[in-house]
């Protein structure tokens, strides 16, 4: 039976999948005139953090929603009439998509990654895992990772059983540290107290991230405020020395989302904390 993009989106939204329309060419609809050039203050993935109240499908992945009232609203009607496909925000659904763009990438995945749910794409496959991490493009030839702060085209339910997001996938997005031959002692960036950068000690950093995860996990009330304060504390300690990787940030986002925070709220809190600290 033939279905429209809107009907597909409503069905996915009812299952908790944040969705948005895609125009021909697989791109999201552009911002409206009010939001053009970030005049509205922007959504979490924009340069200037703010609370954009636009009711249209603006700001790409950040517009994804599970609210059927929004999806059916007059402000979205034109986009659905012109939509060529449906996209979803994997991170908002607790998922990570390993986008394999060619046959070589698919062959690599079959040799390297744990078996999970797979969906055929135009040129390759999407491998979908249960878990959230920061998105990263071109982690290796023909391989993109789409999770938090990104969108993926809906290509169907696929086959196979969802597996937990493995460390081998998280590791693909971890930036390789710069090797320095000298000086042996790292200095704190401008504005710090100077001296050795203790944050480079793996144990110190790991303990800090683990304590932050625990603080969020144990929150019994005011979860959003707790998440913001925790992000602020982590950034104030580790935000200026280059210690934090996407994997560390993803761990904090995962802990927050386990307490009911949306990916959008996590990104708001992270961005606002960075802004407050001048990062």
> Gap between N and C termini, in Å?
52 Å
The helix fraction, in percent, is 25-40%
Return the average pLDDT rounded to an integer: 82
Coarse structural class: alpha+beta
The main pleated sheet reads as:
6 strands, mixed
Radius of gyration: 20 Å
The topology string of helices and strands comes to HEHHEEHEEEEEEHHHHH
Count of distinct strands: 9
Could you describe the 3D structure shown?
The protein is an alpha+beta fold. It has nine helices and nine strands. The strands form two sheets. Strands 3, 4, 5, 6, 7 and 9 form a six-stranded mixed β-sheet that branches. It has a three-stranded antiparallel β-sheet with strand order 1-2-8, covered by helices on one side. A hairpin with a 4-residue loop joins strand 4 and strand 5. Helix 6 runs antiparallel to helix 7, helix 6 packs parallel to helix 8 and helix 7 crosses helix 9. The N and C termini lie far apart (52 Å).
